[in-house]
Amino acid sequence: MADRISSKADVLKSLYGKLKYSRVEKLKIVTGAELDADPYGLAAEIAEEFAGGYIVVRSSSSNEDGLNTSNAGHYESILGVDPSDGEAVVRAVREVLDSYKCDLDDVSGEQVLIQRQITNISYSGVIFSREIKKDRPYYTITYDDSSTDAVTSGRGGKTVYIIRNVDCDELPANWAALIRSMRELEEMHPEYPLDVEFAIDEDNTVTIFQMRPLAASINGVHSDVDDEEVFRTVLEAEDTYREISSLVGDRNTILSDMAFWNPAEIIGENPHPLDYSLYREIITSAAWNQGLSYIGYREVDGDLMYKLGNKPYISLKKSFLGLMPDELDDRLEAKLLKYYDKKLIDDPTAHDKIEFEIAFSEYDFSTEDKLGTLTEAGFTREEIADLSDSLFNLTNNAICNFNRNRMKDLRALNGLRVHRENTRSNWLMAHNDVVTLIQYFVQLIESIKHYGTPKFARQARLAFISKAISRSLVYRGYFTDKEIDDFMMSIYTVASEYDSDFQDLVDGRITRVTFDEKYGHLRSGTYDITCETYAQREFDLSKGSAAARKQRQTIEELKHNPLDSVKLMEALEDIGFYVDLREFLDFLKDSMEEREFFKFEFTKTLSLAIDILIDIGDKLGISKEDMAYLEVPDIQLMVNRPAEFTGDIWRKNIDQNKKKFQRASMLILPDVIYDPLQLKCIEIWEARPNFITSECVTGDILLLENYENEDHEDVADVQDKIVVLPKADPGYDWIFAKGIKGFITKYGGVASHMAIRCAEFNIPAAIGCGDCIYSFVEKQQTVTLDCAHSKITKGV
Fold first, then answer.
1. Disulfide: which of 92, 247, 537, 602 matches 452 by Cβ 3.0-4.6 Å?
2. Do the Cβ atoms of 714 and 538 come closer than 8 Å?
3. Cα(407)–Cα(430) distance, integer angstroms
4. How many Å apart are CA 665 and CA 658, to the nearest integer?
5. Report field, pTM of the whole predicted structure over 0.85
6. Over the stretch 469-520, which tens digit does the pLDDT of each residue have?
7. Is the torsion defined by CA of 197, 202, 206, 208 positive or negative?
8. How do residues 323-333 score in pLDDT, each as one tens digit?
9. How far is CA 392 from the centre of its chain?
10. Quick one: which of 356, 320, 313 has its CA closest to 337?
């Protein structure tokens, strides 16, 4: 192939008329010298050869398709040129040649490619023969269904990944045609991975516009994992998916990485075994439902979270069941499940918003209108009335019993604190052997499961109900978005207290020791043993204080500015909850405060458990980076078999888990899965970000992940920046004391931790952007974050 890549035009000429599964449009190659010699004679030749329709005048520079660079989209290509208009043809050829002059002094020998412009295009874009970030064995298709050059010009594109060994008969017709044509090109040119520009018409006929070596793959990273291992891992994931479907009781169950307990945000899309197993053990195995069933939701058995490859997924069926009022009868429950599934499959972008856009899980000022739409889905008036009554009863009881349940949960949380402090004292004051330390770890985890996370799950659900009611007050017209935003800012949570204490630290009113006693347990990855605690980090106390003080002052001013009592009383009388105005307002505020407090407290015990696990690793000579490959059951097992324990047992587990993790890390997996084919043909949907506040800001972005990877979180000066991060759990609360301008994440739900934080501090944010939008953002230097109009654009 090396002798045939001098230009785009030469490559297409070599393919013309030789392809079975695709085609190349008739072409004419002209040079700068030919244009200069006889421009209108050349135009006349083009008019004769391409009479009828329109032509495309395309770049074919010698700089465009080399072995080291492609410069795709770097030069001009002009669509829609009328070949009978000689002036337009000459002008177009000249414009394309002139675009080369930014790199070349002499364009006389440079080529311009003329082809007929094809019509009836359904899809156009580029396909790589491999995924280039990790050199994974996936065809990577970036396409558009509205423009023939949107992808190559860098203006947009959707993405599909298709495993290289796929059987084309399994694929949708359009992608099957494209993969067959790609394989034919690969057989003709096996020397290098390929980068091919294509179009697919309404009849699924593939037209090739360009073929070049995939320069980024040739000169970039290469995988240490054999392709065959990846293929086997995909098959294993398919088997696992079918096993999960069988366990859940569905033929093809629906899984989501961001529904309900949003694991992709909390532990990431590729968590280490320890992160995943800790989250499963203390949250998704049982606590999530124990907390909800106590306040009137349906009791659900079994795990909520499962894993395909390394990726954590939430069961939508169990989520929907767990969000149903317990008093619903089985027949209506089954009918709702079917309705929810269809609605989710019709719009997978709602998977991180199921409580707001799919499921009916509480009663607020918009519920009756939403329930009214069920008649179109075949629900009877009696069924809708039953659902309405059950939602009202559940929500009313939750509000009426809020203070009693809160006091009970606070007593349990105090039991967690007592056990934690006793364990800490025993750990620090005595010389402990490894087996004793393992017992401490396991006991702490059990204590969290008993005293901590069920109570947190309950408080989190109550906070969600509060937020839904607050937002529905806008829907019903009692308050404006601004009034509710101000109300959210008036709520004084742990994050507000952290912000206040951090400023006291900056200003010298408290010592670092005092600050660490309160917040030193926090980690940027709450479940990640490899992350340092706040107590282990150096904070730059000179940055961000002025902006943060201004932010703090605004919050202080709003603290004593609750919702208008006359309007709120009118709303309360309208909805009919059996509480007085004071109880109602206290519920709206206190439930959100308690959610954050309960999370803050149980993570103290979790952090201590992780610290003890690090100590165990130190005593065994195992680094915390290696300990991340253990699983909680590996550790629990040693409590029951202490006499058999040696460090070698764990080292063997670690080695096995590392190899498995490395293989599984090569998988590309969808955000939502409801068909095993999605493990082979992965469509990346453009997510709908959850925009927080109604503000619009423009600012420089700061990719915080770049600093995280170097373990220097506070090196980043985030003041007055729009901070961009794939995921963010409570350990990232430090950024809110630094005066940031805005916040963008790849993962996160409408009721997630960071969504609440940004609302609390009135920080414009786009939470849960997904792959497509996030990839756009991270390539920019400046963006405009327009929350009022729900869009992110390139800044100016």
1. 602
2. yes
3. 35
4. 10
5. yes
6. 999 999 999 999 888 888 888 888 887 788 888 888 888 899 999 999 999 9
7. negative
8. 999 999 999 99
9. 33
10. 320
Query: Each residue of 193-234: pLDDT tens digit?
Result: 999 999 999 999 999 999 988 865 555 667 778 999 999 999
Strand ranges (DSSP E) for 603-734? 672-673, 681-684, 690-692, 696-703, 722-725
3-state secondary structure of 235: helix
Please name the helix (run of DSSP H) or strand (run of DSSP E) that holds residue 208, with its range, or none.
Answer: strand 206-213
Residue 236 CA to residue 163 CA, distance in Å, equals 14
Q: How far apart are the first and last CA of the chain?
A: 43
User: What's the per-residue H, E or C state across 459-497?
Assistant: HHHHHHHHHHHHHHHHHCCCCCHHHHHHHHHHCCCHHHH
pLDDT at 43 over 50: yes
- The answer, yes or no, to whether residue 96 has pLDDT greater than 60, is yes
Distances (CA, A) of 269 to 10, 257, 641, 665, 748: 43, 8, 33, 10, 12
In angstroms, the CA 161 to CA 583 distance is: 53
pLDDT band at 714 (very low <50, low <70, confident <90, very high): very low
Query: Rounded CA gap, 652 and 411, in Å?
Result: 42
- Extract the tokens encoding 107: 């364009």
Q: What pLDDT is recorded for position 778? A: 87
What count of residues does the chain have?
A: 796
Q: How many helices (H) and strands (E) does the chain have?
A: 29, 21
In single-letter form, the type of residue at position 631 comes to E
Distance of CA 719 to the CA centre of its chain: 24
Distance (Å, whole) CA 58 – CA 210: 10
